[in-house]
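Handoff note, outgoing to incoming analyst
You'll be picking up this chain. Sequence as last confirmed:
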Amino acid sequence: FKLNDTVGNIVTEFPGAAEILKKHKIDFCCGGDRELKLAVKEDLNDDSRAAEILKKINENYSNKNDNYQEIEDPKNLSQSQLIEYIIDKHHGFLQQTLPQLSELTKKILRAHRENHGQVLKKVHRLFNTLRMELEEHLIKEEEEIFPLIIKYSQAENGGENEETLNGILELETEHDTAGEIVKELREVTADYQLPEDACNSFKLCYSLLEELESDLFQHIHLENNILFARLENNKK
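Most recent structure output, in case you need it:
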């Protein structure tokens, strides 16, 4: 890979790069259309680290150290296969995890309000905003946009694509909103640093929020940089 490769394409070709980019807080999902050098400069305010990050990615790629085991090469899946995978894995994860986190954020706010209320009130508000956004988003994808994508991909000689593309633009905007909330959650929790008096529920809540972040980044990457990109490229 090279510095002028986009971060979205890097993760598409080598899904194992996602963990490296996430570790360095480089946005590869909503900001996946940026070249690596620019992404490092914008997200870290330090473009001198781009070469170091690129070296790590290339070393892992050479060693085939790929942590994305469920789909070794998602770009080779058909549109319908990729949609099925996204719904089963990522939508399924959200449907299970969001209610659990809703209870946990409320529980730890009540239990630790005296010592950590300022942070936990922000966590509670941000998470519930994110939950509302995501629940509406999943319904729109499953009931409206995904069926349009499948219909278009199965049509002979393509067909009229404007409705599908407009729907994709809406979803990408919603992805940006969700991504910003996730970044803000990490910021207000100081990278999910636990206080000394954190109870088991506190620890579980922060652990699940980090898991939610990782899953959401992969989820958005698969949609923005593979599923949606195919239709947008066909339009050009």
